[in-house]
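tool_call: predict_structure(chain=1)
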Amino acid sequence: MKLSSFIHFATFGVKTILFRKREAILGTIIVTDKCNLSCKHCSVNNITAIVHPYEQVKDEMKQLYDMGVRILFFCGGETFLWQNKGKTIRDLVIEAKEMGFLIVNVVTNGTYPIDLPEADLILLSLDGDREHHNIIRGETYDRIFDNIARATSDNICFYMAVNQINKDCIEHVCRTARDTKNVRAVSFNFHTPYPDTRELALSKEEKQACCDTIKRMMKEGAPIFNLKSALPYLVNNNFPTPCYQCVVMENGKLNVCGRCIDVPGLCDECGYFFVAEYTLLFRGNLKIVFEMLGTYLKYI
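tool_result:
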């Protein structure tokens, strides 16, 4: 991370904590909900299958930038399916950097060639070992690893949603992240139980067991892009929600925190690690502050 970026984020954090501000720093743009997969845990793919126009996405980028957002995520659907007027997701990343966003990340299922060195992180969904990943996402595991091997940069971070199917695969994914070329780290979430996928949710006891594994792998030096101090809050779902410092833009609609905020009761069962980490950070939790500093400086 550049020194200028570090200073900007540090200043934002101090002001937010001291003055209890609610301005956003992290924004996500959903460029399409079109996806080539039908994953068992996903509730948001191919609802419209619309690829949003380039001009609209660029206007949304400017709107978020003018709000003060400096960390930008492009999400889907599948982001690498986004093409419009000769532009691809790579063009959006380059334009976001030119616009002034300090960190630009892309979320993908990894089934398309990964030629995106301009992104700070490519969050690539890996949901277990070959057997369990393929149960969730179809026969994609080998194709994903072929694409990782051919990637043009080492900016990949595995992104695992832990659920009833893959809850015993955390250690495997941690070791795979450690041992795979072009992969920098792994980031975890717990399954957030939308009404149509509630059967995949973990119990409190299962979450605790998963967190115990994550902590053990951290101790062993696995490259985990999460914060140890936030784990008890995720087990107990007692972190504050929503996260006002995060916003999501989808087809012109701006949501605080995430797309799931409109689902009654879902915030109380939130499994997004970053929501816990950011809300605790901006409430001034000192352990979180220092852990985040070390983690971001190491992996971004």
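agent: The mean pLDDT is 96. Proceeding to next step.
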